[in-house]
Amino acid sequence: MAPSAVRVKICGLTRPADVEAAVAAGAAYVGFVFFPPSPRSVFPEAARALAVEVPAGVAKVALTVDADDAELGAVLDRVPVDMLQLHGGESPARVTEIRARFGLPVMKAVGLREAADLPALDAYAAVADQLLVDAKPPAGAELPGGNGLAFDWRLLAGRRWTRPWMLAGGLSAENVAEAVRLTGARQVDVSSGVERAPGEKDPVRIRAFLDAVAEVAA
Ligand SMILES: O=C(O)c1ccccc1NCC(=O)[C@H](O)[C@H](O)COP(=O)(O)O
What we know:
It is an enzyme of class 5 (isomerase). This protein is of the alpha/beta class. The protein has one domain (7-217): Aldolase class I (TIM Barrel, Alpha-Beta Barrel). It is built from 7 helices and 10 strands. The longest helix is centred in the C-terminal third of the chain and has 15 residues, at 203-217. It binds ligand LARABZUK. The ligand O=C(O)c1ccccc1NCC(=O)[C@H](O)[C@H](O)COP(=O)(O)O binds at residues 11-12, 33, 35, 38, 40, 63, 65, 87, 132, 134, 143-149, 168-171, 189-193. The site of ligand LARABZUK has 27 residues, from strand 6 and strand 8.
């Protein structure tokens, strides 16, 4: 299929069939979650088996949450990934440290709910290779991401950063076209919106999501 101008990341893959569906539909990135409280979390050995089947040209992303160096090393020693996604409260200094120590590009997730959250994006744009602009989790949420929650996309109107960025949070085949039009995003990330149950992707929803993105990009 012709590549879409808007690149798609499918996050939280746990099963070979889900990886295959993401790749076949044209995803540019696939994400593996290494955060045991999540229903999408995978052990490094299982993630390795998934990652080695991903064809060249599709970027493999390891998602961690406030992981220390030993935890990051345990993942990166076993799983061949192309990028780290830091989805916790990692400071800009910690982002810099992780980039230097592990030699991989880092995408920093930043949660938005209101305009006061926007300056954090500038701070991370100075140190990260990419930004993931996500919804801030609600108070008391068990997970810092993957909650299927959108934020007010109008917050991003007219905003640009010095790094590539990806829009995330509550996207689905039904709303991704409007999200792209409102924000100008050239990359989008989805997890819950292409699932039939947490940790179980749905190939029909994955295909519908990629089709909706291709339509808005055409
Ligand atoms: O997916 C998880 O379980 C998860 C756990 C801990 C931190 C982040 C997590 N997911 C992040 C994502 O899957 C995406 O990058 C993004 O937040 C979009 O998720 P969704 O709103 O479910 O589409």
